[in-house]
């Protein structure tokens, strides 16, 4: 038994399933999760002293690589000045300025402690602002474990085969409508039936929780105009795509202005942070200015702000994001080429520093939930373990996308592509 296996056994004596978030348990791929000892740049090091090139990047946050010296320094400096005050700090305004500088639609914003908190709060605000109850979401999109959104949710819930969770009362989801992703006609139909009751449409503009599936321009444009026409709030859940699909998020990539945006992951640079924000008139419905209640003891925490501010500063440096995008394209194209060389059918999606590999016979780009669900999960499992044996850590689920960082340079990408070649040759057999 190696060290990870024995740590996992002990963990299961204390934590349900041995983990604090389900996807980490390797249920989707089988086997024992790797226990991480430390990480640096593009690499993870496990408790058995193995090194892996990391394409999970903490599920997104590690866009400047792990333990970036400038981020670590900023965090240590902030920590030395006190961990939490529960009173305003200048750092919170600096964070808000940095976010608004990159995502101008967030005219006013509020910091929270996770992506889930961001989406939960944005929904309450949208309902409070419009005085309506119905929320529209899309199959295969995941917005955190918010009760009212655990309806045909993606991510861990999909992997575990429990699309709706016990513990969520029927009464809580009765106002949640789930439509087909990338299907503008479905959205038009729903709005023509109940447009005046819709408080908000929440969407991942680049879906990162049914592997990586970019929204189509037509689909997202349609959502924008339907919301405007019917007085509903358009919420872009950019917890994953924020500072990844483009520096300004998916809304910059598609040139669409949502009413509210949810952020997480990158915005905290690896600390537990989320944010939501948008139109000033909507945001000013929040307490203390308005009647919609939302609060948090640790929200805007000084150590978390330091990590996030430094991370945003680094990725904003001239040319850096373009290089990140280019190296991710290089990887995506390399994967396609290596698969073609051995005659292995697959599709690769990529937007900015997000990508997804799909084992599918279908010779068309993956744009729908149905197509994702038709991919070969068994082949993915074999692929995942073979890559792990090659020292490459991919997301341990066929329904999760991949992430890169500015430390994944050409040398790292070439090492990865050579591993892909060897693994593809095995998979063909
Ligand atoms: N929205 C999206 C798009 C996400 O990908 C996630 C997490 N993967 C969340 C919300 C929830 O964020 P958190 O896990 O920080 O609560």
UniProtKB/TrEMBL annotation:
<feature type="modified residue" description="N6-(pyridoxal phosphate)lysine">
    <location>
        <position position="265"/>
    </location>
</feature>
<keyword id="KW-0963">Cytoplasm</keyword>
<keyword id="KW-0413">Isomerase</keyword>
<dbReference type="GO" id="GO:0006782">
    <property type="term" value="P:protoporphyrinogen IX biosynthetic process"/>
</dbReference>
<dbReference type="InterPro" id="IPR049704">
    <property type="entry name" value="Aminotrans_3_PPA_site"/>
</dbReference>
<dbReference type="GO" id="GO:0005737">
    <property type="term" value="C:cytoplasm"/>
</dbReference>
<dbReference type="InterPro" id="IPR005814">
    <property type="entry name" value="Aminotrans_3"/>
</dbReference>
<dbReference type="GO" id="GO:0008483">
    <property type="term" value="F:transaminase activity"/>
</dbReference>
<keyword id="KW-0663">Pyridoxal phosphate</keyword>
<dbReference type="GO" id="GO:0042286">
    <property type="term" value="F:glutamate-1-semialdehyde 2,1-aminomutase activity"/>
</dbReference>
<protein>
    <recommendedName>
        <fullName>Glutamate-1-semialdehyde 2,1-aminomutase</fullName>
        <ecNumber>5.4.3.8</ecNumber>
    </recommendedName>
</protein>
<dbReference type="InterPro" id="IPR015421">
    <property type="entry name" value="PyrdxlP-dep_Trfase_major"/>
</dbReference>
<dbReference type="InterPro" id="IPR015422">
    <property type="entry name" value="PyrdxlP-dep_Trfase_small"/>
</dbReference>
<dbReference type="InterPro" id="IPR015424">
    <property type="entry name" value="PyrdxlP-dep_Trfase"/>
</dbReference>
<comment type="similarity">
    <text>Belongs to the class-III pyridoxal-phosphate-dependent aminotransferase family. HemL subfamily.</text>
</comment>
<comment type="subunit">
    <text>Homodimer.</text>
</comment>
<dbReference type="GO" id="GO:0030170">
    <property type="term" value="F:pyridoxal phosphate binding"/>
</dbReference>
<keyword id="KW-0627">Porphyrin biosynthesis</keyword>
<dbReference type="InterPro" id="IPR004639">
    <property type="entry name" value="4pyrrol_synth_GluAld_NH2Trfase"/>
</dbReference>
<dbReference type="Pfam" id="PF00202">
    <property type="entry name" value="Aminotran_3"/>
</dbReference>
<comment type="pathway">
    <text>Porphyrin-containing compound metabolism; protoporphyrin-IX biosynthesis; 5-aminolevulinate from L-glutamyl-tRNA(Glu): step 2/2.</text>
</comment>
